[in-house]
Amino acid sequence: MAWIYLFFGILAEVCGTTSMKLSRGFSKLTPSIALFVFYGLSLILVNLALKRLEVSVAYAVWSAVGTAIMATIGVLYFKEPFSALKVASLVLIVLGVVGLNLSSR
Q: Which UniProt keywords apply (predicted)?
């Protein structure tokens, strides 16, 4: 169940970060409100996940998967530049999370 909480916490964090971009510096009301709702939900879900998961692994997974999803959304939706360096950097982040996960077992 902890991994499910973490997964939905990641999705909520991604929605919060996307809302932050869409709020345009808090100038758009709906995305500005959504930002706080999604970040609050994310923190609640990650907190529930931490009852069973090690904080180092949970936070690493939360931040790395969130970063990878946001980078993808940035390229596909917000038309941010895509480069081999960006892909390589994301791969290194994922490898770091895998290493942390393997070291905790």
A: Cell membrane, Membrane, Transmembrane, Transmembrane helix, Transport
